Amino acid sequence: MDPQRLLELARKNGAEAAEVYVSEGLGRSANFEANRLKQVETGDEEGVALRLWRNGRPGLAVARGPVDDELLVEKAIALAQFGQLEEPELASESLNIESPPYSPTPIEQLIAWGEQTIALVRERYAEVICGCTYSEEVGTVRLLNSLGLDMRYTSHHRSGYLGVEWVRGEDFLQVYDGETVLGDPSPEAVATPVLERLDWSEVNCPTRAGTVPVLFTAKAATVLLGAVSAALNGRQVLQEASPWSQKRGETVLSPLLTLSQDPQLAPYITPFDDEGTPAIALEFVRAGRLETFYADRRIARRLGLRLGGNGLRSDLGSYPQPGLFNLVVAAGNHSFAQLLSRMDDGIVVDQVLGEGAGLSGEFSVNIDLGFRVKGGEIVGRIKDTMVAGNAYDALGRLAALGSERLWEGNALTAALLVESLAVTGRAD
Fold it and tell me: What is the C-alpha to C-alpha distance for residues 12 and 20, in angstroms, rounded to an integer?
């Protein structure tokens, strides 16, 4: 498959504009179940998406594996007759991009990391059952279009994940954690937070029911931040569905919060988006004040926003839409121990069951892993507990913000101490 030939064939068949998006990926992993190596997996995939405009209407065709150039163009042309009239939004300036150096990791090393991680946990808790995965992923994206754009970038990362099950009679506990890095993952870094939570869980205790202080660890902070990601979406703003559509320049969150994106933060370095727009740093909220939104090229033009490189495809067969490749929460001034010290009697939320807050901000989740705090210290694990509230309100009433940040999905965030939320469960 020759991407340039696809562009030429599109023009010969009457397309006014066209782009070719090529994606290649290679992954390998060592997977452990019940404390033992279960399987080793290696896989690769390749796909191409052709998007063109004919008579002002877009058509998108996708192929995976071997590609018949003429057939792919015919499909895109045929689909274009059903598209809605629109002006093409294409980038025209190519970036000079240097991909970071990369050396493949032997599968034996992935296995060794997994064995080391499990051993670290079972040295202290021999009765637990561990599941563990160490993986490596390499991906290359190439984007070309009829305006002369031609860019390529190769990214890679390694990940370690650990899940632990602890059964004590009728009491079942599950703890998980992991890390994703550009270099070598550390078994100690993966195992340590799990061991810490097992230590905190040795004693079960009643929850603190009512309206109480709640500390969301970095792992659980996305329960609240999901609403923010949705509210900052330019599509929601354009449709006036976002509660922040008319609040640019106003205070919408706690002054403790500054939210941004930074495409140069490892391990999720992103030089350009799926439309070929350079990915740049953007500050969405500064000290609680709403500064801007994120958008793809089309919506950014309609809203008068600066292009930030936020046109993302959910898969090859999707058109670019506004998306966040990361959400960065600026660090606060309090260590985790200091956050606990500010709580006389409250709870810590670390893992939840169910989805967090969406665009409305409302949430009600079961706590999968949480802890009781008394006198500034964790005194045990709480069970059968729910926490509910509104994410915008909670993020407007932060008591303190943690200084230690972790990646959780596409968010780099610290722990968040909320003044109070409604908590139900087995109380004293």
Answer: 15
Tokens 């079961």 identify what position? 366
Q: In Å, how far are 89, 123, 131, 262, 390 from 297, measured between CA atoms?
A: 6, 53, 42, 18, 31
**How far apart, in whole angstroms, are the C-alpha atoms of residue 303 and residue 292?**
10
Q: Which two tokens stand for residue 386?
A: 């729910």
Query: CA torsion 15→75→83→48, rounded to 10°?
Result: -80
Whether cis (ω within 30° of 0) applies to the bond prior to 267 is yes
Q: What are phi and psi of 114, to 5 degrees?
A: -65, -45
- Mode of pairing for the β-strands spanning 327-329 and 345-353: unpaired
CA distance 55 to 13: 11
Is residue 351 helix, strand or coil? strand
pLDDT in tens, the chain (428 residues): 789 999 999 999 999 999 999 999 999 999 999 999 999 999 999 999 999 999 999 999 999 988 899 999 999 999 999 999 999 999 998 888 888 888 899 999 999 999 999 999 999 999 999 999 999 999 999 999 999 999 999 999 999 999 999 999 889 999 999 999 999 999 999 999 999 999 999 999 999 889 999 999 999 999 999 999 999 999 999 999 999 999 999 999 999 999 999 999 989 999 999 999 999 999 999 999 999 999 999 999 999 999 999 999 999 999 999 999 889 999 999 999 999 999 999 999 999 998 889 999 999 999 999 999 999 999 999 999 999 999 999 999 999 999 999 999 889 999 999 999 999 987 65
- CA 163, CA 194: separation in Å to the nearest integer? 8
Number of other CB atoms surrounding residue 273 within 10 Å = 25
